[in-house]
Amino acid sequence: MLREALKLTIRLVNRSRLHTILTLSSLALGFSVSLLAISFVWGELTYDQQWPSSDRLYRVKTTIERPGRAPQSYPQTFGPLALERERLEGVEFAARAIGQWDTISTGPDFEINHVVWGVDPAILDLMPLDFIAGNRASALNNPSSIIISASMAERLFGR
Q: What gap in Å lies between CA 147 and CA 139, rounded to an integer?
């Protein structure tokens, strides 16, 4: 039965190659557009949903416009803006964060490139994190202190 269906399919493909190519390419195009649309909608609906007040969290960005050049957007703002939150209507709380790629090393044999975020201690009030070790009260009081995830700690220091 399967052999007969395969023979019939091959005969139809050989008889009308252009029609087969058009049909298969439109099927592939429709399938890929559907997957892209689904992934876009899924990303928009689940973005930052791990935070309890995600509907009230916003990330401010900067757009710089120069004469004769296209506007450039950056997903960060100048540091003093967070300090002026009392003068901004509707802003309940603000914290500064800046991310950059950096090399993390735990010795001469191990180095990785990873995004490192410099943040205000106030970020812990906006995004409550679960601590495995240490405590929230003194987590970022020292300028040289860090917070890392359990998976990153295992990656850097082993078990």
A: 7
pLDDT digits (tens, 9 = 90+) for 34-73: 999 999 999 888 877 777 877 788 888 889 999 999 999 8
Which residues fall within 8 angstroms of residue 93, CB to CB, at 6 or more apart?
Answer: 85, 122, 125, 126
Q: How far is CA 19 from CA 6, 14, 52, 106, in A?
A: 18, 10, 53, 60
The one-character DSSP state at 75 is S
Rounded Cα gap, residues 116 and 118, in angstroms: 7
Task: Report d(CA 85, CA 96) in Å as an integer.
Answer: 11
Tokens of 72: 């450039």
The b-or-e profile of 117-150 (16+ CB within 10 A means b, else e) is eebbbebbebbeeeeeeeeeeebbeeeeeeeeee
pTM of the model: 0.57
Helices assigned H by DSSP within 47-110: 80-83
136 with 113: CB under 8 angstroms? no
Residue 101 phi/psi, 5° resolution?
-75, 135
Mean pLDDT of 70-83: 82
